[in-house]
From TrEMBL:
This is Putative LAGLIDADG homing endonuclease. It comes from the Eukaryota. The keyword Isomerase does not apply. The gene is orf193. Residues 27-107, 132-179 form the Homing endonuclease LAGLIDADG domain. Keywords: Endonuclease, Hydrolase, Mitochondrion, Nuclease. GO terms for molecular function: endonuclease activity. It comes from Rhexinema sarcinoideum. Coiled coil: none annotated. PANTHER family: INTRON-ENCODED DNA ENDONUCLEASE AI5 BETA, INTRON-ENCODED ENDONUCLEASE AI3-RELATED. GO terms for cellular component: mitochondrion. SUPFAM superfamilies: Homing endonucleases.
Length: 193
């Protein structure tokens, strides 16, 4: 797709992970944002209906899993219940998860089911892997706003990345590598960066 605007012509491309290591970080970010490991050890990741193609991409790369439409909602879930598929997921995300509760789910549920090696939090520079891409896919949004100032000739354009979380631990991690600031919604008790 080519776009033409004030800044010239450019080609828009979505860069997918290029290898299994990069895919593992992307998948870990998705699970940290909008996924969980059930008590039976199966892995579930939720998507807005418009993002169904991402669920299909996961299924294709992992080679296992099913995609279900969520009743009465504009959402789908990718669910992996097959042991061979779960072992692939475990190997992809081991030592790449950042969310403490997801690490606990992995170690208490997936390890119990598969008898596989545990995972641990491993610090990594988020500018060097695809974890943030997966996390933003799940819990992030991009906002573009334009304002016309009465004393200015041009529109003022602002582009912002917004991530909402109930706990600020992951936002602090992102802020360390990228900057930004925490904002707290008093109504919802949700942290933003």
């Amino acid at each position: 797709m080519t776009s033409s605007n004030l800044f010239g012509n450019f080609e828009l491309k979505a860069l997918k992970p290029q290898n299994y290591e990069e895919f593992g970080y992307f998948l870990a970010g998705l699970i940290d944002a909008d996924g969980h490991i059930r008590k039976n050890g199966s892995v579930v990741i939720a998507f807005h209906l418009k993002e169904k193609s991402v669920a299909c991409y996961l299924k294709k790369v992992i080679g296992f899993g099913s995609i279900y439409k969520v009743k009465n909602r504009q959402a789908v879930t990718y669910e992996c219940m097959n042991n061979a598929g779960l072992l692939k997921v475990a190997n992809f995300i081991r030592n790449k998860l950042k969310h403490a509760s997801k690490i606990t789910q992995f170690n208490e549920r997936l390890v119990k089911r598969l008898k596989c090696e545990k995972t641990a939090y491993t610090p990594s520079n988020l500018t060097k892997n695809h974890w943030l891409a997966g996390f933003l896919q799940g819990d992030g949004s991009f906002n573009i706003t334009q304002h016309k100032r009465s004393n200015k000739l041009f529109l003022e354009t602002r582009i912002a990345v917004k991530i909402a979380q109930k706990l600020k631990d992951l936002l602090t991690l992102i802020q360390t590598d990228f900057g930004g600031k925490h904002l707290v919604s008093a109504i919802e008790q949700i942290f933003f960066i």
